[in-house]
Amino acid sequence: MNNNLPNRHDIPSFWRPHGENAVFLHLGENPFPPTDRVRKAIIQASEHANRYPDTNCRALREKIAEYAGHGVSPENIIVGNGSDETIDLAIVSFCSPDGPAAIFTPTFFVYEFAALRHASPVVKISLAADFALPDRRSIPTDLAQQNYSISFIPNPNNPTGALTSRACLIDYLEHWPGIVVVDECYYEYSGETVVDLIHDYPNLLVFRSLSKSFGLSGLRLGYAAACRSIIEAMERHAMTFPINVCAQAAGIAALEDAGIYQRRIAEIIERRDKLQHALQDIGLETLPSYANFLMTLWPAAWMEKQPAKQLADRGVLVSDQTMNMNLGRPALRIGIGAEDENQRVIQEITGIFQKNP
Ligand SMILES: Cc1ncc(COP(=O)(O)O)c(C=O)c1O
C-alpha cells in the first residue's frame, strides 16, 4: 500500500461546505446550467440506463471529431471520465520507472497526483518568471537531458491562466523527449489550439474537457486527440465502459449547442475582465488570464492572515494556491461566477481589507 498518496479529503479544493449563501469559485466551474437540449438528452438517455453504454463511444467520438475540425477523425479521439481520466490513462500507458514524467511548476496538481498513484517518477521544472513555459534552452542541463516518457503542458496553465505561444510549443514538440501533452482544458476561453498539429507530430497528445466550457463538470467528460498509435496505446489501458449513457448523450447534445455555449463563454470572459479591473481597483495584483479564473497575488504581509480562510468564513470559496505558487505571498485562484457571485467576491474582499488594514 502506498501511504505517501494524499488523501482527497485533505485537499482543500475538494471541500464543498454547505451554507445558505455560499459562493463556490474554487473549482473553476461554469456558472451556467446545461441547455434545454442537454437536459432533454440526459433524460432520454436515462430511460435506457438498464443497458450498458457503447464501450467505444462511437457517436460521441464522431461528434467530437467534427467539433475539433482540422481533419481530426474519430480514430484520433479517446474519451475519458473527465480529463482527469485521460491524464491517468496517459501516465499508465506511457510512463516507466526509467522514463519520468515532466511537469512545469506551478501547475495543475493532478499530473503529479496521477503519477504518484501509479508510482511513476516525476521531475519538476520551474516555469519562467512570467509563468510561461520556459524557453527549452534555458532549462538546466540535468533537468533538460532526462529520458522523459511524457511531459504535461497545460495551455492556458492552471493555476496562473498564462498562455504559452504556439512557436514555443512547436519547439518542444521538435526537440523534447517523449510524448508532449498540451492540455487544452480551457481551449474555448483562450481560442488557441495545436490540435491541427497531431497530423505532423506523432509525439503530440492534446487534452480537452467539457467541464469548463460546456459546464458538464458533474457528468465527467473529457477527451484526448492524437495520432492513431498514441490513441491505440491508451485504448488498451482504458476501462471497459468509462463513459455512462447520460454523459455520452449530454456530450453530443452540448456540442450540438456549441453556438450557445460560445456566447456564454464570451460573457464569462467579459465578466472576468470586469472582475479583474475591480480587483485591481481594490489594490490586488492579478495575472493576465486566458482561462475562466483569475490568479490574485496578495501583499506578503497577508501571509499570516490567511485570506482564503477569511473569505471561506464569509461564504466565498476560492482556491488557495499559495503553496503551489510559492511566491512568499498569498496566491488565490478565483473562478468567474454569475454576476451576483462576482459582486459578492468584490464585496467580501473589500470587507476583509477594511477589517485588516
Ligand atoms: C489544466 C486542467 N486539466 C484538466 C482538468 C480536469 O478537468 P476534468 O473536469 O475534465 O477532469 C483541469 C481541472 O481543473 C485543469 O485545470
Number of helices: 13
What summary fits the major beta sheet?
A: 7 strands, mixed
Per CATH, the class of the largest domain reads Alpha Beta
CATH fold-level label of the largest domain: Aspartate Aminotransferase, domain 2
Order of helices and strands: EHHEHEHEHEHEHEEHHHEEHEEHEH
Please give the share of residues in helix. Answer: 25-40%
Unreliable stretches (pLDDT < 50, length at least 5) are none
Radius of gyration: 20 Å
Number of domains: 2
**Straight-line N-to-C gap:** 48 Å
Supply the CATH superfamily name of the largest domain: Type I PLP-dependent aspartate aminotransferase-like (Major domain)
Global shape: globular
Give the strand content: 5-15%
For the largest sheet, list the strands in their spatial order: 2-8-7-6-5-3-4
CATH architecture of the largest domain: 3-Layer(aba) Sandwich
Number of E strands: 13
Structure description:
The chain has two domains: 8-33 and 259-355, Aspartate Aminotransferase, domain 1; 36-256, 3-Layer(aba) Sandwich (Aspartate Aminotransferase, domain 2). Helices cover 38% and strands 15% of the residues. It is built from 13 helices and 13 strands. It has helices spanning 36-46, 58-68, 83-94, 110-117, 141-144, 166-175, 187-190, 228-237, 245-256, 258-282, 307-313, 322-325, 339-355, and strands at residues 23-24, 77-80, 101-105, 122-126, 150-154, 179-183, 204-209, 222-226, 285-286, 293-297, 316-317, 319-320, 331-335. α1 (36-46) runs antiparallel to α9 (245-256), α3 packs across α4 (110-117) and α10 (258-282) runs parallel beside α13 (339-355). The N and C termini lie far apart (48 Å). The model has no long low-confidence stretch (mean pLDDT 94). The site of pyridoxal-5'-phosphate has 13 residues, from α3.
